[in-house]
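Progress against Task 2.4 (sequence-to-structure conversion) is shown through the following example record, which the project officer requested during the mid-term review.
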Amino acid sequence: MKIFRRYGLSIGLVLLLLIVWEIGARLYGKPFILPSPINIFARLWELRSVLFINHLPATLAVILIGLLMSLVLGIGLSIWMHESEIVRKAFFPLLIASQTIPVIALAPIFVLWFGYSIWSKVVVTVLITFFPITVNTFDGLRATDPHLKEVLQTMGATKRQIFLKVELPSALPHFYSGLKVAVTLSVIGAAIGEWLGADSGLGYFSRRMMTQFDGAGVFAPIVLLSLLGIALFLLVGLLEKITMKWRNEN
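Structure tokens generated for the chain above:
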């Protein structure tokens, strides 16, 4: 009941959209172009073995490796820019410029460089997810209350102690905000990479079904990608609650 009270309106809206979609698809009468939700879920059930055993693990590997690399690079660069004004002036404009290039235009280049291996998809994922993690963590570090830092400095705290006791807790909410954006974008990045060059994965399977004019087969892996993004988002939210109990208690 608690979940229904909290998400009742969202669930109702989704059900309404599915009903409208179902009616519209049946009236249109061309399932190879616009399959109905019932046809999509039926096709998803038919393809469950292929999708869950062969393609879902490949996409999940791309997402997890890409997110891990983005976390290491993003957190490291954000701390480095926070500690050094020279580094910030050198890298921050490049960081912004990296987001002005359409990723879909770079993906074929990565395929040329890395082939159909997992790394061409990982690079696309990193390029998409690196930015929100870096910028949000950097903003969180800069949002630290200067008065708290001054108090600790007058008490003889070291720079490391100030970072761990003040700056890091201040940056955590911003970091998790960026990570929530990044995990949803990671699904898009993996799908784009697989769509343009792969021999396995949900994005690859969706493209293969398109060549066969299987509308429901195109949508079936997309449904899985959406559910995967939602699951990752909820997982980050759970991790945020566990690591920031002090915030939830206030």
